[in-house]
Design goal:
It contains six helices and nine strands. The longest helix has 19 residues. A hairpin with a 5-residue loop joins strand 1 and strand 2. The strands form two sheets. A five-stranded mixed barrel has the order 1-2-3-5-4. Strands 6-8-7-9 form a four-stranded mixed sheet. It is elongated, with a radius of gyration of 20 Å. It has 255 residues and is of the alpha+beta class. The chain starts with a strand and ends in a 15-residue tail after the last helix. Helices cover 32% and strands 25% of the residues.
Amino acid sequence: MNFRKSQAIVLHGRRWSESSLILTCITADYGKVSVVSKGVRRPKSNVAPYHIPGAHVELIWIHQPQRDLFSLVSIDPVERLQPFTDIARFNSGMRLLKLVRKTTMPESPHLAGFHQLLRSLHALSDPLTDPALIYWQFTIRWFAEMGFPWDLAQCNVCGHSVRGNQIGYLVEQGSGICNRCLKQQSTTQIPNLLLIGGETFAILKKLETMPERGLHRISVSERSREEIELVCNRFSEYHLGFQIRLKPIMDVVSV
């Protein structure tokens, strides 16, 4: 038998039978894998807590070529991440996991993305950090991991720093147009252009470069919050063909 072993983060679980669960995980070494965890839903199972979405675990499974569903041999915790303490953190955490699940292919490792996801999950345990900022930052960095990097350092037209009260954001390129260049062009003729505030663009630049531990220093107005959410959704829809929407909380699988 071909056994494989790797650290993993649980992305999703769904019922397989009376007592089993299909677990979808992102692994550090092998990309996304789906495994059958037999007996985990029995009342006396002592590994059920390790199957919760967001858990950081070590997996051993039997790899069978030409199959996309494998048998789980063992699952052990690597560390105990803090549980999501409120609805906002729960929603941001579920969006992180869903984004990774929908964009990662089996047998396609993303080691940098794996560690970025782990850092973002750690950041969600910080009560001082806005959970929405964590999700938006992860989205920007995960897009880069998928081959769609953002370039917010300079204006797409003149090449200078992007400044001004109103900024143009180009959804296709993931870049900005400064206020001066924006005034010299007909915005209606620029495809996939979003007009956003200068504050919004400045926050996006910080999210692109700032470490997770510094996010608690960023404050976001309601207007910027709406605009950043729009930017992330439009970029996702344009390049990936979907937006990350959540089902009601009661629809999340519980072991």
